[in-house]
Amino acid sequence: MEYQELITIWNSSNAELNTNIQINRKLIKEVGFKKIKSHLTEIKWSAFLELFIGFFWTRFLVGFFINNFGDIKFFATAILLLIFAMYSVVLNCYKLKLYFSVDTRFSVVETQKKIERLKNIQLFDTKSLYIIIPLFSAPFMIVIAKAFLHIDLFALGILGKGLLYYTFGAFIIAVIVVFFLRKYPGKSFQESIAFLNELKEAEE
C-alpha cells in the first residue's frame, strides 16, 4: 500500500463519525510507520555493519596503540584513528536510536522531527567525508603498513612533500564521492517526510 492510499483512507475516516474511527486511524498509523521504517532499512543495516566492523577495528587499534606505545609517531597516529573510530560509533548508535524510536507510541509531529534529524545526521555524515578521507586515509595507510607489512612509512621519507600531494588528491576524491552521494540520494527520507506532513495536516 502506497503512502497516498494511506492518506486517502485516513482522510475518509475523518468524515465517518463512528466508533471505528480511532481504530482505523491507529491501524493506518501503524501501517504507515512500518512502511517508513522499511524505507529506512538501508540506514539501519549500514549502521549495524559499521558498528560491527568498528568493533574489530577498534580492538586492532588498541592493540597497535599498546604495541607502539613508546614510539610517538605511531602512538599519535593510532590516537587519531581511535578518535575517528569513536566518532563513528557514537554517530551510528545515534542513527539506530532515532530509527528504533519511530514508533506509533509517539505523535506524528515527534516522529516527523526524528526523521528530519535522521536526515540531517545522514547529510552531516556524508559531508564529513570532506574531512575524513583526506585526514584519515594517510594515517590508515601508515598503521596498516606498520602492522601487517612491518614497513615504517615515516622512515622511508615519503611522507614529507609527498604527503601534501597525497592529501590534496584524497580531498579531490572526497569531493567526487560526496558529489555523487548527494546527487543521487535515496527517496526514503523525502517520501517518509512527505507522508508525515500529510498525516499532520490531516490530524489538524
Describe this structure in words.
- 82% of the residues lie in helices and 0% in strands.
- The protein is mainly α and 204 residues long.
- The two termini are 23 Å apart.
Overall geometry comes to elongated
Rg is: 23 Å
Q: Which spans of ≥5 residues are poorly predicted at pLDDT below 50? A: none
Helix content: over 70%
Mean pLDDT: 80
Helix segment tally: 8
Number of strands: 0
Major β-sheet profile = none
Quote the beta fraction. under 5%
In whole angstroms, how far apart are the ends?
23 Å
Structural class: mainly alpha
> Could you spell the SSE succession in H and E letters?
HHHHHHHH
Keywords:
mainly alpha, 204 residues, 8 helices
Q: Care to give the gist of this entry?
A:
The chain is mostly helical and 204 residues long. It has helices at 3-15, 21-39, 41-67, 72-100, 108-127, 129-148, 161-183, 188-203. Helix 4 packs antiparallel against helix 5 (108-127).
What topology does this entry show?
Blueprint (H helix, E strand, L loop, with lengths): L2 H13 L5 H19 L1 H27 L4 H29 L7 H20 L1 H20 L12 H23 L4 H16 L1
